[in-house]
Amino acid sequence: MFTVPGTDGIRGFKMALDEVGGEINGKKIEWVLGPTDATPDTAVRVARKVIEQDQVDFIIGPLSGSEGIALRDYAKTIPNKTIINAASGALETTYVDPAPNFFRYNLDGAQWGYGLGSYVVKEKGWKKIATIAADYSFGYTNFMGFAVDFCKAGGTITERFWLPLGSGDFASIIAALPDDVDAIYLGVGGTDAINFLNQYQQAGGDTNLIGGTIMADQTVLTARGKAKEALVGTPTSGPQADDWDNENWKKFVKKYQDSFPAAERFPSPSLFATNYYNATKAALMALKAIDGKLDDNQTNFHKALAAVELDAPNGRITLDENRQAIGSSFITEVVEGSDGKLHNTFKAKVDNINQRLGMTKEQFDALGRPSRTTPDCSKL
Predict the structure, then answer these.
(1) What is the pLDDT of residue 219?
(2) Average pLDDT over residues 204-209
(3) Cα gap 364→380, rounded to integer Å
(4) Which run of H or of E encompasses 275?
(5) Residue 154 to residue 362: CA distance in whole angstroms
(6) How confident is the model over 113-151, as pLDDT tens digits?
(7) Band of pLDDT at residue 340, cut at 50, 70 and 90
């Protein structure tokens, strides 16, 4: 289900590599692609293969939440190598028992979801909702950031539904959705989001929608069929806004558009392209800082990576003590352009979001780890 996002992620990787001519200090950068299927076991198997057989010095990846947790654990078995997260966003990856050689320059799902909850309460007046989210680590994390913010703003969640990855038939959940709510939060992405939206339209669903981070990304906005009709007007949040009026962002979008044929790319880079670009850019900056010369145990590389501060296309990114990104979340709404294509229009931005969502460690830990039942809004 993540083939299309992964392909766009590689576009972002190639853009960063092209900026340095594919080399650091005269040394050519060689790379191999290790395709996965979003499952932890496959991610680890492929990581072992590229480390042990292809003899790579470091990995940029993975894409999906549970893969990230698995590679964090694998990183602990290869302390003289490095893993630089590409796009995965589960909270536990860097917050719970982090690996000293694992670095993440993208926000986690909770950070991406933060700010959207208070926006829909204050700006839309939607205070009573039901939620549907993907039944795995990223789904829990992204929902948690939204729910913490939503419940603190005075919102109420009446029912929570969870979808296994790769679900095809959503009829039972659609039939069970309450009709006395202001909106439905939908926290799924890729083909799951497209299939759900098509079936929801066919079933006559017309309740307001709130999008999780990967529900209204370019990978879904470019889908055909009735999904398009359901998305217009949907507020969402994540690492970027298609029409953000910022020079760095506009230059990045233009370079993306100029770098790949229109038929092979999205109208605007997806969050996967942006995140892979940022991760690769950070790796290249660290390599340049050490003149492309890795210590036997890569200690110098790790130190350089920890010191990287990115003036990224989607805002300034720094790392915390767990080598986890601190950055911005963008609040957007889906609109239809004059050309008939959908994009996310900028509404607001929340800066300097840390992994504890502005709480003390004690307050954040008291919520519990992201899960089907966390957060408990009655405790907020």
Answers:
(1) 79
(2) 93
(3) 11
(4) helix 271-289
(5) 22
(6) 999 999 999 999 999 999 999 999 899 999 999 999 999
(7) confident
Classify 217 as helix, strand or coil.
coil
Give residues with Cβ within 8 angstroms of 141, minimum separation 6: 65, 89, 90, 91, 108, 109, 110, 113, 370
Residues of the chain above pLDDT 70, percent? 99
Domain range list for the chain: 3-108+245-327, 111-243+329-379
Query: Directed axis angle between helix 271-289 and helix 299-307, to 10°?
Result: 120
Domain 111-243+329-379 has CATH 3.40.50.2300: yes
Q: Tell me the per-residue pLDDT of 319-337, one tens digit each, with 9 for 90 and over.
A: 999 999 999 999 999 998 8
Task: For residue 242, give both structure tokens.
Answer: 């298609």
CA–CA distance, 57 with 76 (Å, rounded to integer): 15
Residues 252, 253, 258, 263, Cα dihedral to 10°: 140
CATH superfamily of 3-108+245-327: Response regulator (3.40.50.2300)
> Residue 13 is encoded by which pair of tokens?
């990787």
Cβ neighbours of residue 306 under 8 Å, at least 6 residues apart? 103, 319, 323
3-108+245-327 matches 111-243+329-379 in fold: yes
Q: Is beta strand 27-28 parallel, antiparallel or unpaired with respect to 23-24?
A: antiparallel
pLDDT at 55 over 80: yes
Check residue 5 and give its pLDDT: 81
Q: Which two tokens stand for residue 88?
A: 């995965």
C-alpha distances in Å from residue 317, one per residue of 111, 218, 238, 326 = 13, 22, 14, 6
Please write down the long-range contacts of 163-169, taking CB distance under 8 Å and 24 or more positions apart. Answer: 163/132, 163/133, 163/134, 163/135, 163/139, 163/188, 163/192, 163/196, 164/134, 164/135, 164/136, 165/1, 165/38, 165/134, 165/135, 165/136, 165/192, 166/1, 166/192, 167/192, 167/195, 168/195, 169/199
What pTM, to 2 d.p., does this model score? 0.93
Residue 241 pLDDT exceeds 80? yes
Distance CA 92, CA 108 (A): 9
CB 101 within 8 A of CB 302: yes
**Which amino acid, residue 318?**
T
Note the pLDDT of residue 330.
98
